[in-house]
Write a structure and sequence with these properties.
It is a single chain. By secondary structure, the protein is an alpha/beta fold. The protein has two domains: 131 residues, Rossmann fold, CATH 3.40.50; 61 residues, Winged helix-like DNA-binding domain superfamily/Winged helix DNA-binding domain (Arc Repressor Mutant, subunit A, Orthogonal Bundle), CATH 1.10.10.10. The protein contains nine helices and seven strands. Strands 2-1-3-4-5 form a five-stranded parallel sheet, sandwiched between helices. The longest helix has 15 residues.
């Protein structure tokens, strides 16, 4: 099996040096340079604490990947429920509490992510279960996707259909404008549409908006 290509983002230079040295010695992982981040198989974020800046970094990293399904692993001191749900929406599959996490734990989480694995503390896992239950009609179909569009894409297209600019949509949804543009570009490419207006028309015709 080929080595897992990992894009690394940290908020602490000392942590960056330490984890870089250890991960580079792993025969199963390959740390990719910044100019190759877009093609990485997975992303690893090391942070002291989760705040708006870290969430923006996560969103930015999410928008840079050419593979929209690549996983993200986060190591941080803590993550509240709102941040958790938002981070999962950007591809987070594993959260490792920094005080109790070893480098071996990080490597295991990254390798597991390649095979569809996920790792969250029990309380966080329950939060995600409750979130899914709250958004899915009992006995009905999940509302996470309509006409091939994700919930986030539908939110963006709905606001654009109402006449909002990408900057206004970013403010409304509390994302960066770059992230909104990346969402639009990704869905246009994925569905073979011509432009943003065509994407809105597609969503309207298919009852998503």
């Amino acid at each position: 099996m080929s080595r897992l290509q990992v894009a690394l983002v940290t908020t602490d230079p000392i942590s960056n040096e330490g984890i870089t040295s250890v991960l580079r010695s792993s025969p199963e992982l390959e740390l990719v340079p910044e100019e190759r981040m877009a093609g990485a198989d997975a992303g690893l974020i090391l942070a002291w604490d989760m705040n708006s800046r870290i969430l923006s970094m996560l969103e930015s990293l999410d928008s840079q990947f050419t593979n929209p399904h690549r996983p993200l692993v986060l190591v941080a001191d803590r993550l509240d429920e709102h941040q958790l749900v938002r981070a999962v929406g950007h591809g987070l599959v594993s959260f490792l509490p920094r005080p109790s996490t070893t480098v071996a734990d990080v490597v295991r989480a990254l390798l597991a992510s390649r095979d569809g694995g996920a790792a969250f503390p029990p309380r966080m896992a329950r939060t995600l279960v409750d979130e899914i239950r709250g958004r899915r009609p009992v006995g009905g179909r999940s509302d996470t996707s309509t006409a091939g569009l994700t919930r986030r894409e539908i939110e963006v297209l709905s606001l654009i259909a109402d006449g909002l600019s990408t900057a206004d949509v970013a403010v409304k949804l509390n994302y960066s404008e770059r992230t909104i543009k990346a969402v639009l570009q990704a869905l246009v490419r994925r569905l073979g549409l011509r432009n943003r207006a065509h994407a809105v028309a597609y969503a309207v015709r298919n009852g998503a908006v």
